């Protein structure tokens, strides 16, 4: 350790695993965004809460910035370390600490991978219902830091709904035990809630007590082909009113083409501009017949042009792959991403303006969009044409994002539905949050992290 | 207006309704606690958000404290004005502003009475599910300020779960529009969540966008008589595992005696030490039979000694009255109240210690307890004997509360489950929240209310 600050850290924590090899700095210094060049000072891999606290205190003394790091699957640059920060990876803190059958809670360390949380819950005959495509690599701490949503929000809500307690190390180095798994606790400000979605700028999530629920009811998966955009909200309203939806996911034919090119199997013949994958309770014959009835109504009214119901688990997985495979199929193209939301009732008006905007501003550029329509959440992926260089492409996209942010503002929407603000959307935060709110955020940040060592520059710039 | 500060306020807002008559000061200066002598400066009854903002700015300039005031049904002194504060009553701001069928949201002013919110939702064929005995007089703003719970938490959660957006005037006079009804919004700190349960110390809730849900399924109400305390958690576990519970409420025979003396009808003959009122889904014959089966199992195992199922809505209401009438039946005695919670799994151990403590510390004093056992929430009501004067009684209760707070601390519990801290439990906040957390609360308070004009002295003292 030639850096005297790191030497001091090693001296305080001789057992701490510290990485400084170039490959490690690159690996741990970035997330799924690829816009910044990783340049961390070092990677710390603490194994205990004590070690995390010592690191935070050390960082305060040396004025070293810390980037809390989970699975680094983020799409907003929240876990990027490009300015000599210490990356504090929770990956070794990935154990189950407790399962309580009476409380139906699972207590885990912050670095546990989402899929392991889900599997542990299943092993106890229960469900941790937050789910999305990055499940195999994202960490629960990161999920909490962005209040991750995903494909089951329409049924189960966001990560926020499932956190019964948090252990957090603040920027000042204090260890807080927030809410401790209580169902009812009206004893002052609920900092657990404040920490959820704070993107590592207030504290580091070292442990989480998660609520579990009953395993999902038997369900069916249906793929629908839609003739036009107007049909989308009609079909959603019809299905929501008559079925008990677990998911209602939307994608375009262009998105489908990428998934098919990536190896997925076509499930509906012919060309259709839009598709929906929906999953709903199908406990008995009556519910299964109701689903067919609803499909029939939609067909009759011309809102769907074709459809298929999965007849096996394998087929259900194949239908889901058409939606869940989109992000992966686009990944090699490193798309420019927007992740926006509006109220559900504002979706039709917003979609109309958004489509016009994208068509107008991205002529000749491939734009893939899809989303959690039942939550008012759309993902827009812009693919760089081969004849446009990266900086010019980025500049163009940023210009369009500014216009999109204006449109969102008019519709009362948000520039980040579930990915967080990070570095990517920092310039647009003002389209969603007022100047007064951002000033309050800066103030609260200073209370939890007086020296601003936790994830500085993420979410908002330090001073206005 | 002889007070020059009030004269200035009237000058700024000539239309503002201001009350200064002695009867008004007394009426608006207290809540359901009766421990403090009301002594507000005046009562302001603003009709608009603008007026609220002007009042807050005026208060900042004149260093006048404001007590935000809803239905004043609070049991912790959160709405008491005993030190020359301006009471800012929201009672004129009680209108429905919007109903959105697609979003399933209801937007109301902060002063709307809970029961009106419930009835408005029902009028739209939907349910606002937070419910408790004070529904006819408490306000939605007050519910939000304490994250009110009640009798349906086991099914529907606390008020927090049902707030999709808030309009709040901060202590600094800023108007914040928080979350604006979005399902997904990961754009920085969720101040909506921070404001919920902040007891009027960060901002005044002037509007709320509430989530609504499907109307409740057809249900049945059952009253159970239990032979002993050990049976309680067994019955709860059995019923929770086999039925879909909407409520599971517990009370003692002593509590029952007060309700009967207050005019309620006995529903089960004989003497039994403990009772449960439970409500559960009963959609079809199969579910109704399942309920009878579960009751039979409990009877067979000796966990219940008798029971009755309501055969009509009137009988269901009569059974519910046995539980819901307790608080009202005790009110003339002005009981000293505790409102405590532990994790559900900690209930048996805590109950055991709590019973011993109460028996030991309150010999010859009547202690009535009941609660939301499925949420780990118990209400303890201590009745003053006629031969003990008020100050001596209070001193005794405060001493026991300190012991109870220690017991709670050992069991990871909370000194306030759903009533809030207010003035009544301020001295015990440290049993539930750490010194570091309370310091952070003070810091956050300063960010939202730099001059400390909103509800000063409630929740915590201003400086440590």
From TrEMBL, chains A, B:
**What cofactor is this protein dependent on?**
FAD
Q: What is this protein called?
A: FAD linked oxidase
Check the record and name the InterPro entries matching this protein. Answer: FAD-bd_oxidored_4_C (IPR004113), FAD-bd_PCMH (IPR016166), FAD-bd_PCMH-like_sf (IPR036318), FAD-bd_PCMH_sub2 (IPR016169), FAD-linked_Oxase-like_C (IPR016164), FAD-oxidored/transferase_4 (IPR051264), Oxid_FAD_bind_N (IPR006094), Vanillyl_alc_oxidase_C-sub2 (IPR016171)
Answer yes or no on keyword Ion transport.
no
Q: Is the Flavoprotein keyword given for this protein?
A: yes
Q: What are the FAD-binding PCMH-type domain coordinates in residue numbering?
A: 36-215
Keywords of the record: FAD, Flavoprotein, Oxidoreductase
- Give GO MF terms, alphabetically: FAD binding; oxidoreductase activity
């Amino acid at each position: 350790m030639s850096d005297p600050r790191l030497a001091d850290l090693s001296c305080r924590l001789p057992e701490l695993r510290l990485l400084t090899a170039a490959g490690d700095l690159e690996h741990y210094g970035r997330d799924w965004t690829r816009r910044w060049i990783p340049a961390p000072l070092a990677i710390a891999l603490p194994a205990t809460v004590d070690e995390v606290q010592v690191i935070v205190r050390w960082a305060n003394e040396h004025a070293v910035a810390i980037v809390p790091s989970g699975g680094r699957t983020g799409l907003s640059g929240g876990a990027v370390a490009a300015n000599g920060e210490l990356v504090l990876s929770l990956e070794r803190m990935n154990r189950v600490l407790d399962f309580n059958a009476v409380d139906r809670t699972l207590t885990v360390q912050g670095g546990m991978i989402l899929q392991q949380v889900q599997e542990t819950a299943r092993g106890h005959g229960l469900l941790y219902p937050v789910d999305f495509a990055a499940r195999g690599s994202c960490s629960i701490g990161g999920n909490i830091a962005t209040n991750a949503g995903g494909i089951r929000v329409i049924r189960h809500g966001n990560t926020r709904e499932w956190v019964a307690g948090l252990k957090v190390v603040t920027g000042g180095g204090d260890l807080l035990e927030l809410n401790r798994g209580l169902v009812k606790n009206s004893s002052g400000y609920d900092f657990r809630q404040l920490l959820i979605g704070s993107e590592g700028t207030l504290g580091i999530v070292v442990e989480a007590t998660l609520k579990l629920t009953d395993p999902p009811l038997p369900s069916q998966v249906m793929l629908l082909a839609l003739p036009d955009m107007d049909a989308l909200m009609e079909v959603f309203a019809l299905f929501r009113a008559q079925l008990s939806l677990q998911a209602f996911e939307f994608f375009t034919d262009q998105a489908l083409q990428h998934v098919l090119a990536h190896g997925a199997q076509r499930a509906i013949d012919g060309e259709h501009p839009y598709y929906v994958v929906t999953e709903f309770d199908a406990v008995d014959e009556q519910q299964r017949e109701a689903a067919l009835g609803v499909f029939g109504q939609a067909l009759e009214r011309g809102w769907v042009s074709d459809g298929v119901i999965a007849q096996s688990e394998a087929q259900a997985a194949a239908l889901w792959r058409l939606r869940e495979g989109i992000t992966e199929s686009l990944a090699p193209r490193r798309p420019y991403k927007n992740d926006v939301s509006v109220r559900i009732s504002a979706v039709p008006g917003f979609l109309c303006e958004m489509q016009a905007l994208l068509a107008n501003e991205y002529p000749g550029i491939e734009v893939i969009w899809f989303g959690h329509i039942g939550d008012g959440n759309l993902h827009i992926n812009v693919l760089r044409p081969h004849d446009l260089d990266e900086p010019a492409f980025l500049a163009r996209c940023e210009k369009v994002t500014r216009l999109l942010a204006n449109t969102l503002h008019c519709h009362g929407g948000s520039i980040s539905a579930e990915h967080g603000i990070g570095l990517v959307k920092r310039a647009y935060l003002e389209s969603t949050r007022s100047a007064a709110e951002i000033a309050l955020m800066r103030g609260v940040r200073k209370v939890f992290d007086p020296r601003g060592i936790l994830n500085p520059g993420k979410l908002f710039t330090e001073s206005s």
